[in-house]
Amino acid sequence: MLGCNRGCGVGKLSLHGVSPMSLRVGFTLIELLVVIAIIAILAAILFPVFSQARDKARQTSCLSNAKQVGLAVLQYTQDYDEKYPSNHWGIYLILVQPYMRNWEMWRCPSYSGVYTVRICFWVNNASGCASIPVEPPPLGRVITGWLSNSDVMGGWDNWPPKPITRVQEPAATVMMAENDNWPPREGAINNPPTSLPWTGHMANSTCRWAWHAMFHNRWNVDPRHGSGRLGAHHMDGLNFIFADGHAKWQKQPPFDCAAWVPALSRGQMDIRNQTAIGAGCNPTNTSGGGSSAAGTWCGQN
Fold first, then answer.
1. How far apart are CA 169 and CA 190, in angstroms?
2. pTM: predicted TM-score of the whole model, two decimal places
C-alpha cells in the first residue's frame, strides 16, 4: 500500500507551480476607478470637439444655402429693372422664391424662427393689411434664419425698393445676415391658424437704428444690444450674404456703418459709436422710422 505524506487528502489541491496572477478573476476596485477616470477625462476632451465638428458641419450647410439665396436675389434684380425685392412685411421671402424653388433654403440648420409674411406690399400698405397673411406659403409662414438689409434692398416703412446701382462696393456691403430668433423658434410654424407667428426677425435697418447691426443680448456675444437683430448661429459668429452674392462666416458684424448703409462713406461712422449716442447710421445722428428725420433720410438715400 502506497503511503501518503502529511497533508495529503481528498479535496486538497496543490498550488505548486501555479502563478498567483492566473487565479485572479476580475479587476480590483482601484483598477476600475482608474479606468473610469481615464474614460471621463477622454470624454471631457472629445465631446466638445465632436460638438464643434457638428456645429461646423451645420455652419457649412447653412453657408451653402446662403450662396443659393444670394444668387436668387441677384437673379431677381436682373428681371426687375435692377431693383432689389422689397422687404416690406417680409415680401422678399415670397418674391425670390421662383428663383430658389425650395423653402428649405431660408432655414438655418442651427437656429431659425418663423415669420408670417403679410399682403401689405400687394395692396400698397392699405389699412388692416398687417393682419392678413400672404399666400403661399400656407398661412404665410416661412421658417427662416435670415434677415435682409433694408438699407440695401429697400421697403422699410413701404419705401420703394432700391436699385443695385446704389451699392458702390458690393463685395463689402451686407445684403443679408443671420437673424435673431427666439423660442419656440421653428415650433411656431404649428401655431393656431388664426395667429400670425413671429419668432425671428426678417429685416433690419442700421440706418435708422445702429444697434440693428448688433447681436441680441440673448446670444451672449459682443457687440450686443437689447434690441439687436443679429443671431450668433454658429460658433459664436454668423453667416453673411454680401451684395455681390458671395457669402462667408464672420465672428463679428462689420462695425463700419458704410458696410450696412451704401449712402455713407467708409470711416464716416461706426455702429458702436452711433449706438452709444442712441442714433442710427445717418447724418442726422438720430434714430427712428416712419416720417422721422432718420426715417426720411434712410428712405430717400
1. 41
2. 0.83
CA-CA-CA-CA torsion sign (66, 95, 145, 100)? negative
Q: Are 204 and 228 in contact (CB under 8 A)?
A: no
CA distances from 250 to 38, 85, 130, 144, 211 (A): 37, 25, 34, 19, 18
Predicted local distance difference test score (pLDDT) of residue 42: 79
Q: Which residues, including other chains, have CB under 8 Å from residue 181's CB and lie 6 or more apart?
A: 111, 112, 113, 145, 199, 200, 201, 231
Write out pLDDT tens, residues 218-272. 999 999 999 999 999 999 999 999 999 999 999 999 999 999 999 999 999 999 9
Q: Could you give the residue ranges of the DSSP H alpha helices within the chain?
A: 29-79, 92-95, 150-153, 271-276, 293-300
